[in-house]
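Table 4 source record.
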Amino acid sequence: MAQAGPLYETYNRAPMVFERGHGVWLETPYGERYLDFAAGIAVSSLGHTHPHLVEALKSQADRLWHLSNLHEIPDQTRLAERLSEATFADKVFFTNSGAEALECAIKTARRHFYVNGQPERFRIITVEGAFHGRTLATIAAGGQAKYLEGFGPKVEGFDQVPFGDAEALRGAISDETAAILIEPVQGEGGIRPLSPDELRAVRDLCDEHGILLILDEVQSGVGRTGRLFAHEWAGIVPDIMAVAKGIGGGFPFGACLATADAADGMTLGTHGTTYGGNPLAMAVGNAVLDVVLDDGFLTHVNDIALVLRQGLASLKDRYPDLIEDVRGTGLLLGLKCAGSNADLVMAMRNERLLAVPAGDNVVRLLPPLIVTAEEAREALNRIEAALDMLSHTSKAS
């Protein structure tokens, strides 16, 4: 069989190359400029080459790259303290990715019950359509057949219930249940948010049964929804939370946050990482928080979200044969397509606007949080041009 190339053939890559970026714009080697409403799948929270992040990374790179966690890393302690001050958490564990943050969250929940004399409580309830990562445990947590196929027996201990089915959620709780794991807004699943009332009901259910609430805020966190974390809209707090993507602004790292009670089993030697919390990542993470926690930053996110939501609602009204619904919160937005979401992503790409497909036939719009109102309106113009092209193509056929 002929070899296609040295890389694993696990990605359906677009035939595009970008060599530089600035703010919400990407540029090809040929000077073509694209408006980036993909942001590396909600990763580039502060856009490309943000000067504060660039300076933080360059400055740290000149001093020290790696130590491992066999030594004190002052910026790691500082970032953990800042995250604790800004959230519900008492304890933080730094990882290299969102999947690792979820693995840590799962282990934290199970270990909590183990050290408190209930080792039989290890099962975790999750929601159909969820995406929690691609490790063996996190694909089991997500429960989607397309990610499980061919990787051997599914990791034991996860029970899926339908999205938004409160009765099924209650009915799935047993004497072996340790936690409920949910995304406040399903990203890969099609920008499907749980309402504040639904999130409060889940929190109440966990309290009623003495189980832990784990939130996956890998995609919805760090200002993406207009609050620092999406669960804040519901006025609740989790026991454990996984964070990644936007927290690094493009530098790969994640974090598992927990209350002191939930993390009581994570003692010396129970978990570890070689690269997690390295000096480079911590320098960038602290720089991201400098910007996101600054006065007015989240107000800006909500202001731009309003511009986009109003514009997208108008496009939905004008192109009902192409857009069924506008979903999401803040700058975590989705267009539920009447036709093919792949066709709309391609049509937008032809207008030099990048977006991301998702489940449930949705196109995700995930601009950097620093996007301006002018850039938001430019994106709306390009989406309209894409919809117009698809509309004419449909009528012609």
